Amino acid sequence: MGFTSYLLAAGVVAFISILLAAVTPSTPFLISKSGTVGEDTLLTQFPFIGTREVSLNGKKWNVKTPYHAFDSIGNIIMGRANHDAIQKLVDEGSNPNLPKLKVTKTSDGKALASAWLMDYKHTGIGPYQEIVLATWVGLEQVSCASTDPYCFLQLWNKQSQGVQLYMLRLWLDSDVAIAYGRDLLGADKLKVEDFTIKHSADGGK
Known about the structure:
The structure is a single chain. By secondary structure, this protein is α+β, with helices and mostly antiparallel strands. Helices cover about 15% and strands about 35% of the residues. It is built from four helices and eleven strands. The protein has helices at about 40-45, 85-95, 150-155, 175-185, and strands at about 5, 20-25, 30, 50-55, 60-65, 65-80, 100-105, 110-125, 130-140, 165-170, 190. Strands 3, 6, 7, 8, 9, 10 and 11 form a seven-stranded mixed sheet that branches. Strand 8 and strand 9 form a beta hairpin.
């Protein structure tokens, strides 16, 4: 069973974020902390097992599966946004034939929002950068007990209630990464030509 996440930004504060993920049994999403396959037990446990064809705008690629990321740098921004604006974005991006997804709230009625800036320096499909926008949703209305954006940590304990991270936008600079995400992960990734995520000498943005 796979899960898909969604990200967003809206309201008083705008947030940008990155793909956290869609996971399927056939293409597990694996990220190495060590930088190489040989040094990471997770990636050696689930090595490349084959290739799949993906395509975008008439171009085709044979990509290795499952997905491996060997060296990546990411920054996450947590915040709150206007709940009605976020709910509208989720409604517009959801399947009308499925149950309505309800955006979670902080104790003052705001929506949780997160922005992920990801720099994938070495992956099985080459280097690329990605920005994802996300919020938390559930089949029932769920609220955090505070106004702290990091109260999202409380929601991990409520996943049995159907609370999940919901990705609303995923922007990338790589055609093959977009094709991989769309064809194999079911994520509607979008192309952005003119953005670059840069890092300072100390690793900050």
